[in-house]
Amino acid sequence: SASDNGTGAARGLWSSRMAFILAAAGSAVGLGNIWKFPYVTGENGGGAFVLVYLLCIAIIGIPIMMSEVFLGRNGRHNPITSMRLVAERNLRSPLWRISAVVGMIAAFVILSFYSVIGGWSASYIGHAAMGDFSGGTAESIGELFGGLLSSPGQLLIWHTIFMGLVVLVVSRGLKGGLERVATILMPALFILLLLAVGYAATTGHFGEAVSFLFTPDFGALSISGVLIALGHAFFTLSLGMAIMMAYGSYLGRDVSIARTAVSVAIMDTVVALLAGLAIFPVVFANGLEAGAGPGLIFQTLPLAFGNMPMGTLFGTLFFVLLLFAAWTSGISLLEPVVEWVEEKTSLARTGSAILVGLLCWLLGITSILSLNLWADVAPLGMFERFEGKTIFDLLDFFTANIMLPLSGLLTAIFVGWFVAKESLKLDLALDGGAFSLWYGLIRFVTPVAVIIVFAYNLFG
Ligand code: PHE
Ligand code: NA
Questions:
Q1: How far apart are the CA of 325 and the centre of ligand 1, in A?
Q2: How many separate domains does the chain show?
Q3: Residue 114 CA, ligand 1 centroid: distance in Å
Q4: CATH number of the domain that residue 404 is part of
Q5: Is 372 inside a domain boundary?
Q6: Is residue 280 part of a domain?
Q7: pLDDT tens digit string along 165-191?
Q8: Residue 49's closest CA among 60, 38, 59?
């Protein structure tokens, strides 16, 4: 609000370090862990990919997350204003806030289609619970998925429900909304995931999954696999979208940014690995293809659930888990923009949340139509590179491959090269060795790595 005095007292703070960690982990843990990580691991040969991915999390993901949280907490406003304030305090150009602008536009656009996919998860809870997968064949389940994608009406209903759930929570604010939902859903998600792993252990193919995930076969790892690992490190930790800046703006001054960032990264990684341990035994037990691609979750797994003992129960559980994960991530995508609207206009939180949610919902309709009525509409089809790409494909491409790395790169350069070292030392409160390590990573390693991925995605 306009009366914000910048101390953080007026705008509220997370009630504990744990509340922040769970909310940030709620953002990080999403479809990326449960849907994307298993299939990119499957496509890139397993263990060796996992190893590279872990390295990327450690030397790129964590340093950038720390930078974003630092910017938010130091600025104590919405991401754009925070970056401007930090720039001004360091006698730098206010234009550095472009990094937050790019991140927030990305968050808004990503939410528009993330909500459509979140809607699929919601609709699959119903299918699983009603036994629609029982005795299914690859064909019947393919038809079920195809039927959903080809029906604008069904997609719209689920998209509306998902967006409604997100707006509902964000409109209730920090403690009554974001924090409350994260502290309930994250432990629940973890328990559901452990149950799913326990179930996977009964398939008799658990050992196979463990060796698939943890035995490095460097022969199966290509250069593009390495770059995918790097890009995924970004996406999975929700970086480059101003989210950690927004969440950091409510973080108490006494909390260690480094320790919290490491905790969030560990939780995210543990969930991704557990998801792999839950999914691959089922895949192997049913003779399915580990590198089945994006269809793994919505086509391959239901087939398995439909033909296994207790498949109805565990299938339902699995999609509830997926919905929880997507929900807390959706919330975090809406928060930065809502925080900005709330501070910049006379609208209160509820009004801001409804307004932004409504606009985002509208944009999401273009993704829905891309799956059916507009499946042949390729707005950039005149360029060879974008031939056949629908609006949905383009939104995904431009956010993931251009906006996120760009925002992350600018953040790393700004924090590494244009913020006073003393100010960083004071806020991060690390001991000498740890600080030097982080500082070296954010100044040199992170920017170079991001530029390489960036160039590869654009021109490779
Ligand atoms: N980090 C989330 C995941 O792994 C994805 C996400 C990206 C969520 C951006 C929110 C914002 O699925
Ligand atoms: Na993630």
A1: 9
A2: 1
A3: 9
A4: 1.10.4160
A5: no
A6: yes
A7: 999 999 999 999 999 999 999 999 999
A8: 38
